[in-house]
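Review form for a predicted model. The reviewer records the input and the model, then writes brief findings.
Reviewer: anonymous (R2)
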Amino acid sequence: YLAVVIDLYSRAVIGWSMKSSLARELAMDALLMAIWRRRPTSEVVIHSDQGVQYGSDDWRRFCREHGLEVSMSRRGNCWDNSVAESFFSSLKKERVRGRVYSSREEARSDVFDYIEVFYNRQRRHGHLGGLAPMMFEAVNSKQSP
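Model under review:
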């Protein structure tokens, strides 16, 4: 299983986690990576689908303690979470569909390469004017006052 945290502004995957089960730690580890990377100083909205891991007391407490406002998709409405759905579609089409991994570690390594090397740094996005997420962030951080 793979959980991701995506920055809606730049479309960068800023947190991710892979585990052999859909336990709450899967989502919490991805969120922890995102917090560690971005170190937010003001309230941030964290949007998710209605998976059980996002409704747990631990999840809500963790979000509250880190100044994260919880937002959840409507039941059965994939359009509410379209950026994440688009990422998973791209991952499947561009990397994992049809592949057979010999181990979980091989799969994890390939997903790491897709996210950290290709998707965030090289994959161009129409929404970002043809830039990759990290390039978009670099260009737009230089334009900030």
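Findings: The first strand starts at residue 2 and ends at 6.
Further findings: The CA atoms of residues 1 and 22 lie 6 Å apart.
Recommendation: see findings above.
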